[in-house]
Amino acid sequence: MLAVDQQAPLVLVVENESGSGTSLLYSLEAAGYRGKVVDQGQEALRMVEQMHPDLVLLDLALPDISGFEICRRIRMADGPQPVVIIVTAKNQETDRVAGFEVGADDFVTKPFSVRELMLRIQVRLQARRGSEKISSKPPKPESQGHMTMGPLEIDTVGHHVYLHGRELNVSAQEMRLLTFLARTPGKMHARQELLSEVWGYRPDATSRTLDTHIKRLRDKLGKDAGMIQTVHGVGYRLIIPDPASATPASGRRRRR
Fold first, then answer.
1. DSSP code, position 88
2. Quick one: pLDDT at residue 40?
3. Domain count, the chain
4. Mean pLDDT on 77-106
């Protein structure tokens, strides 16, 4: 093994094939990263909880838990969120979409160029550090992990969304999109801006993908679907409704 700076970013490799995992580990260490390899999903989840890796290279074909389920559990957990790059032999559009739906940041298909993978890791970690610098600035009182816009409440730490006190079931990607819009209520965001900020300019993230997620969010908002406004030919914005027009919803209330 190569001598690696113990302050270097930690990459967890979750790989079913031991030879591939070892090869990736050597490549990571040669590039200056710390690495850890596991071949079981349960072990991967334990490592994420205990070691807080900066990035996870995640194979989908694991013997105990699917890679999709691992990614979903990582995104639902409290604590620091690693970058997740799915590395798999599966190359169907349905697999890529499913991966992004559960919160993956990138998708690399085997066989792949090691150089390209290292560059993707570098870019993703740089973007993560940039977002951490932004979030480390003193937040406004209303942005301490909790945002309220009229009847809509977003808990960005616990990954929960409430409407009139009733929790909505939203996917990881829907949560990202709604949170991004909610940070600047009333501001119009162009389609390309949303695709860049929420999907990271991924080739498969098209206007159709954006429209589909907007429709799903509106369906879940029900009578308050008008909070997400379409700026025809340009993009979308989130507005705060007039309190006088707010209609309380029945259902399970969130815990106080």
1. E
2. 92
3. 2
4. 82
Indicate the SS3 state at residue 54.
coil
| Run of H or E including 83 | strand 83-88
Q: What is the pLDDT of residue 217?
A: 95
Look up tokens 């390309």; give the residue.
192
Q: Note down the domain range covering 183.
A: 141-245
- Do residues 196 and 236 share a domain? yes
Domain shared by 46 and 77, yes or no: yes
Tell which of 135, 153, 173 closes a domain.
Answer: 135
β-sheet with 83-88: strand ranges across: 34-38, 10-14, 55-58, 83-88, 106-109
Distance of alpha carbon 254 from alpha carbon 155, whole angstroms: 11
d(CA 26, CA 161): 42
Mean pLDDT of all residues in 192-202: 78
The structure tokens listed for 232 are 């025809």
Is residue 173 within 8 Å of residue 198, measured between CB atoms? yes
- Average pLDDT of span 126-144: 52
Please tell me the pTM assigned to this model. 0.56
CA separation for the pair 24, 19 (Å, rounded): 9
What is the spatial distance between Cα 169 and Cα 117, in angstroms, rounded to a whole number?
Answer: 34
Q: Cα-Cα-Cα-Cα dihedral of 125, 111, 2, 50, to 10°?
A: 50
